[in-house]
Amino acid sequence: MTGIVPSEIMPTEIVNIGREQVHVVETGPAGGPALLLSSGLGGAWFDWWPSVELLRARHRVIVFDRPGLGLSPSAHAAPSLRRDTGLLAGLAERTGGPVTLLAHSMAAFHAEALARLHPDLVRALVLIDPSHERDPRAPLRLAGPLHPLTKAAGAALGATRLAKALGPMGRRAVLKRTSRRDEPVPPSVVRSVYGRGTVLGAVLAEELAYREMAADLEALRERRPFPPVPLAVITALGDVKDPAKAREWSDGHRLLAAMSPHASRTELPDSLHMVHLDRPDAVADAVAVVLGHRSEEPEEAV
Question: How many alpha carbons fall within 13 Å on the CB side of residue 242?
Answer without folding.
Answer: 4
